[in-house]
Amino acid sequence: MIEQTNEIVRRINRQAGRELLLEAKALIPATGRLPGADGKTKMSKSQGNAISLSATPDEIRAFVNRMYTDPNHLRASDPGSVEGNAVFAYLDAFDADRAAVGELKARYRRGGLGDVTVKRRLEDVLQALLKPIRERRAAVSNDLGYVRDVLRSGTAKARAITQSTFDELRDGLGLFSLDGIWNSDDRLR
C-alpha cells in the first residue's frame, strides 16, 4: 500500500512540477512485526493469535501460556533457541530491561532456563504495560460526553488538515474551485 501511495504522490508532484505531497515512509519498530501466539504468522485478531489492549489479566495469562517457544526445548536443562521464539520476540519489544532480557537469552541458549520462567517474565511485563491502558479505557468509557467531545475535536482537526491539503493540491495543480456551484444534494445548481 505504501508503494502504491507513493506512485500516486510522485504522479501528482510530477504534474504540479513541484513537491506538493510527501512520500509515505513505513514506521517499523526495531523489533519488526510481532508474531502471533502460535509463532507462525503475524499477530492477527481474525486468526485468534493476538492480544487486545483491553485484555483482562486472565486473558493476558492465557495468551502468554499458549505462546510458541522452542519445540526442541523439552526440559529446562536443554539448550533452547531464541530465534523464532515468540516469547523472546515480545520480550524484545516490550521489556525495557534489555540487560535482563539478554541474560535470559543467554541462559535459555545454554540450558538451565525453562519456558515457564520466561513466560512468567513476559506475563509480568505485559500485565504492567496493559494495566494503565485498561484502567484508562474503563474510566473513559464511563464518560460518554468526554468520548463525544474527543471525537468531535479530532474530527474538526482532521477536516481542517484535509481541507488545507485539498486546497494546496487544487492550487498546485491549477484546478478551479467548485465552491458555490454545488447544492446540498451534491448536484450542480
Descriptive keywords:
189 residues; mainly alpha; Tyrosyl-Transfer RNA Synthetase; 3 domains; 6 helices; 54% helix; 0% strand
Q: How would you characterize this protein structure?
A:
- There is one protein chain.
- This protein is mainly alpha-helical and 189 residues long.
- The chain has three domains: 1-30, no CATH class; 31-131, Tyrosyl-Transfer RNA Synthetase (Orthogonal Bundle); 143-189, no CATH class.
- Helix content is 54%, strand content 0%.
- The two termini are 38 Å apart.
- The mean pLDDT is 89.
CATH architecture label name of the largest domain = Orthogonal Bundle
Largest pleated sheet: none
Structural class: mainly alpha
Binned, the helix content reads 40-55%
Query: Any idea what the CATH superfamily of the largest domain is called?
Result: Tyrosyl-Transfer RNA Synthetase
CATH class of the largest domain equals: Mainly Alpha
Basic shape: elongated
Number of strands: 0
By DSSP (H or I, 4+ residues per run), the number of helices equals 6
CATH topology-level name of the largest domain: Tyrosyl-Transfer RNA Synthetase
Summarize it.
By secondary structure, the chain is mainly alpha-helical. The protein has helices at residues 2-16, 57-65, 86-94, 98-110, 115-141, 144-172.
